[in-house]
Amino acid sequence: MRLVIDWPGARLTSRFAPQEAVDSDTMNSDTTDSRPGSRVRVAVVFGGRNSEHAVSLMGAGSVLEVIDRSKYDVVPIGIAQDGRWVLAPGDQTYAIEGDRLPRVDETGTALALPSESASLVALEPGEIPRSLGEVDVVFPVLHGPFGEDGTIQGLLEMAGVRYVGSGVLASAIGMDKAYMKLVLRAAGLPVGPFVVIGDRDWRTDRARMLKEVEELGWPVFVKPARAGSSQGISKAHDPASLEAAVEFAREHDPKVLVEAAIAGREIECAVLESLGDAAPEASMPGEVRVREDHEFYDFEAKYFPDGMRLEAPADISREVAETMRAMAVRAFEALSCEGLARVDFFYTPSGEVIVNEINTMPGFTAQSVAPKLWAASGLPYPELVDRMIRLALNRPAGLR
User: Fold this and answer.
1) Please, what is the Cα angle at 176 between 170 and 180, to 5 degrees?
2) Which of 112, 131, 269, 309 has the most other CB atoms within 10 Å of its CB?
């Protein structure tokens, strides 16, 4: 089975067999057709029906801006907030304008997914069917549920189509912070104390859950278990504010994670899969400095101008930096990640290094932390985008 965008007589599918390795450097850049020897065709998929929709668009806009058009033929595909897939403009700037967040225009040429196959059918009323040609790799610049959590990865696996980033298992574990912490702890990595509040427990045994949280001490951070970009996160300083914080997180996810506050510096490290058989490599660590009027590293601090700054390399000893880099690679491998990930640490005043979380598809604008860490480590953003595509092309589809 192959992923197809299909009109009558026209299809968008992978021209390579699932187990066939592809070297993008050997592709001929002189032609735009879909026959062997032509440019590699990349479908950049972005948007999604979750609270991280705008973050995805900002990352996709950066990818579309720098991707090498002499080497890759690009097909932009947007997922609207209502879940509809549409063909999107490839020359649009997806950026925050004032306080207005970007969004996918759901009025574009619609794509439907028939239940009987993995084919995508384009629905363009009143237009003559036209072929998009074949796609060799999908670049899902997606965050949050229904994109970063293994769902689209599973669709592409079933279709036998290569894609950028981690597979189904790593994506699903990385999305669910509760299971992520269990896996990291099982791998011998230090994680902070936490409590998971499930939907049924909150509705039927709220007093017990509140008591378990109180045992963590105050303050605590309350967040959706399966969301990112600091959406739905708040800081509770006492029992009176805890219930409101849980309800706020539940607006994004019925499963809530409550973490003990850890005093320390926030330091992050990016990890990149090797093109060959070598172990994954880690970037230099960088420290996140949040503007003083932000109580913690929230959505506005991450994505609005001047909300934070990144100091790379972080002002830490060489020994601590190497410890973090080694721990970042261990976390990457513990979840069986592929492509790129970002691992976040707390560095306490006593010198303890604690893993906060791993992101299997971190923010991916040119100004996001992971790309900036790689740029500071000697791999500029356009080369990082190219490396991600080459990694996907050189990786077989299916079990590996």
Assistant:
1) 65
2) 269
Helices (H), 145-298: 151-159, 168-175, 177-186, 199-204, 206-214, 239-250
How do residues 112-122 score in pLDDT, each as one tens digit? 544 443 344 55
Residues 305-338: pLDDT tens digits?
565 689 999 999 999 999 999 999 999 999 999 9
Strands (E), 313-376: 340-347, 353-359
Tokens 């949040």, residue located:
290
Alpha-carbon gap, residue 390 to 98, rounded angstroms: 36
Determine the Cα–Cα distance for residues 21 and 59; give it in Å rounded to an integer.
Answer: 27
Ordered strands of the 119-123 beta sheet: 4-6, 119-123, 110-112, 85-87, 72-79, 40-47, 137-141, 162-163
Determine if residue 80 is labeled as part of a ligand binding site. no
Residues annotated catalytic, as ranges: 52, 229, 368
The CA-atom distances, in angstroms, between 261 and each of 192, 213, 217, 228, 237 are 8, 12, 8, 18, 10
Nearest to 75 by CA among 57, 55, 56, 89: 89
Does residue 239 have a cis peptide bond before it, meaning omega lies within 30 degrees of 0? no
The verdict on whether residue 213 carries a ligand-binding annotation is no
Q: Round to the nearest angstrom and report the end-to-end CA distance of the chain.
A: 18
Q: Say how many residues make up the chain.
A: 400
Q: Annotated binding residue at 263?
A: yes
The pTM assigned to this predicted structure is 0.84
- Is 229 labelled as part of a ligand binding site? yes
User: Residue 341's CB: how many other CB atoms inside 10 A?
Assistant: 28
Residue 51's nearest CA partner among 177, 226, 196 is 226
Query: 222 in the Ramachandran plot: left (φ > 0), alpha (ψ -120 to 50) or beta?
Result: beta
C-alpha to C-alpha distance for 237 and 70, rounded to whole angstroms: 54
Nearest to 117 by CA among 172, 160, 164: 160
